[in-house]
């Protein structure tokens, strides 16, 4: 066997051994999730971001071998919980997707030590980031599945906008008059808008960032004023 072939064989052996060792050494302590794990470890236990699959499946934060922090837990009967965990139990705010009488149902609520405590009304939208926007408004104007943005300055369309970039997690880009955005979106809808604009008296240039999650279905108009 050539030296190069021997070296490659040795490398493959080491890689295979390390992967096997990681699988064997990194444990998840919930029996329903015992089977396959990929992710970060600490002292032989799942710790940090990871994914575990057994009878059920969990993807999210782990601590000391248990789901702890934010994650998504899918059990074998099709129920899905997305929210916060503490020491392997639902704890904090979360969203439960289940079936009642054969129909899909979603509940937003609060859990404590694995027990459901109360329902909560989800907010219509969350503004995640806003930089160099003087004023903004977010209005649901009708039923539908569309989110449009109006970029204004001094009460009229802002014609000084440059390098406009709109990134969304669903929908089809559309322009309607001076408004731009997305139609046929899926809620909750996440969108990030960035652009460059002069200020109202044309003495400075600003880089604008606006990021929002719209939770409730409808036709929405978001106005950003500089």
Features:
226 residues, mainly beta, Immunoglobulin-like, 2 domains, 6-stranded mixed β-sheet
In short:
This protein has two domains: 117 residues, no CATH class; 101 residues, Immunoglobulin-like, CATH 2.60.40.
Commentary on this structure:
It is a single chain. This protein has 226 residues and is mainly beta. The chain has one helix and 18 strands. The strands form three sheets. The protein has an eight-stranded antiparallel sheet with strand order 1-2-3-4-5-6-7-8, with no helix packed on it. The termini are far apart.
Topology overview:
Blueprint (H helix, E strand, L loop, with lengths): L2 H23 L10 E7 L2 E9 L3 E7 L2 E9 L5 E7 L2 E12 L2 E10 L2 E5 L5 E7 L3 E8 L2 E9 L2 E2 L4 E7 L3 E5 L2 E5 L5 E10 L6 E10 L3 E8 L1
Parallel strand pairs: 11-18
Antiparallel strand pairs: 1-2, 2-3, 3-4, 4-5, 5-6, 6-7, 7-8, 9-17, 10-18, 11-12, 11-15, 13-16, 14-15, 16-17
Q: What is the rounded Rg?
A: 24 Å
Overall helicity = 10-25%
What is the number of independent domains?
A: 2
- What average pLDDT do the residues reach? 89
Low-confidence stretches: 6-11, 13-23
Q: Main β-sheet, in a few words?
A: 8 strands, antiparallel
- Total number of helical segments? 1
Q: What is the distance, rounded to the nearest whole angstrom, between the alpha carbons of the first and last residues? A: 71 Å
This entry's quaternary arrangement is single chain
Shape call: elongated
DSSP E strands, number: 18
